[in-house]
Amino acid sequence: MLLQNLHNDAIGNFRIIGFIEGISYLVLLFVAMPLKYMMGIAIATKIVGMIHGLLFIAFLVILMQAAQKHNFSMRDSVIFFVASLIPFGTFLTDSRLKKLEENID
What we know:
0% strand; single chain
């Protein structure tokens, strides 16, 4: 499981924020937006959208930290960024991050 055996390292932190940011994106798309557009509950997107926005900013900051500390290739950095824009994308890139994390052990 993702949250088990994570090291106190930039890649481990990036994996955690990627997981949390990915969940917040899915909640925004599949819970808050239907509440707003199908039921007229606009506050749902305001609250979840703000939380997701803050998590996305944290994701970008931690991506930059991990990329600098572990010399991610430009290709990997771009893939991690683009994946964050696609629903379920951060979950798909986690296996690549896990391999990078194992190489630093």
